[in-house]
Design brief:
Length: 278
């Protein structure tokens, strides 16, 4: 089986992907969009992408593509994230800090306290930034990336554990064209159902009606996030997680009732959440 992931080697997504799929062929992609496209074009069977971070929140690109592409979520892995600042071994001066926007956001206060006025630059992934720094020994650049990236690309770590909050976790999801619930040999923490709901038209109590479908069935919502539909200010879709085992009749009735309310419902999957094994 072929598995796409946000690469290159030693990205956080690769660490997640190799734990979920230790035996499969992992195929690095240079963006989250490329991961979705690889699935849609059948170049791969599945892809692993980051969905949410405990400091910075949802990876909005992933949320948008879950809305836009015909894919399902097959499983989720929660992984602790430690960021380090690294430079080329021949360098110690830092004039620019490069990383994935999520990593830059998770280290914002560290950078502003320790490197005030130093430029930051978004790049495709933490590992891609580490690789870029290693390929440019004459530039005074530093990357925010993980320890495996420092080792693989031969960089020197000058500050360890620079994430702004000690508790830093990212959820990675496996997406594919199949409605599957992956059974992994990892520690399972919970089960959930993910839906994307679009309300029919703007009217008082519209969202309340949608939420009451879950409330009176005692279906516990563990996440609700609104995201712009990009059709104009004030137009949103809602990403909802229902935290429970799958009750076929109850869950189908809830979806049928949402449809009767003229909401648009996209079922993303019922799947397990696993915890990264250190
Ligand atoms: O850039 C990476 O290495 C990724 O896999 C995305 C990411 C960035 C920061 C924290 C978690 C995942």
């Amino acid at each position: 089986m072929k598995i796409a992931f946000l690469g290159p080697q030693a990205s956080f997504t690769q660490l997640a992907a190799s734990q979920i799929f230790p035996e499969e062929e992992l195929m690095p992609q240079s963006s989250i969009l490329d991961c979705f496209n690889a699935v849609m074009n059948n170049e791969v069977d599945k892809a692993v992408v980051p969905l949410e971070n405990s400091i910075e929140g949802t990876v909005s690109m992933t949320l948008d593509y879950l809305y836009n592409f015909d894919v399902f979520i097959e499983t989720e892995l929660v992984m602790p994230i430690a960021h380090h600042l690294m430079v080329h071994p021949e360098n110690s001066v830092v004039q620019k800090i490069i990383s994935h926007p999520q990593a830059l956001a998770q280290t914002y206060h560290f950078r502003h306290e320790n490197y005030p006025g130093i430029l930051s630059q978004d790049f495709n992934s933490t590992a891609a930034s580490a690789k870029l720094v290693s390929e440019n020994p004459n530039e005074k650049w530093a990357a925010v990336a993980n320890r495996s990236a420092a080792k693989l690309y031969g960089l020197k770590i000058i500050h360890e554990n620079i994430q702004d909050f000690e508790q830093n976790h990212t959820k990675f999801v496996v997406i594919s064209k199949n409605k599957e619930n992956l059974d992994l040999q990892l520690q399972k923490s919970s089960e959930k159902t993910s839906l994307i709901i679009t309300l029919p038209e703007d009217h008082a109590g519209g969202l309340h009606q949608v939420l009451s479908v879950f409330a009176w069935r005692k279906m516990n919502l563990s996440k609700i996030e609104s995201r712009t539909l990009k059709t104009g200010l004030g137009n949103y879709f809602f990403f909802i997680n229902v935290a429970s085992e799958w009750h076929p009749v109850l869950s189908q009735n809830a979806i049928d009732e949402l449809i009767a309310l003229k909401a648009n419902v996209k079922f993303l999957g019922h799947y397990n959440e696993y915890i990264f094994a250190e």
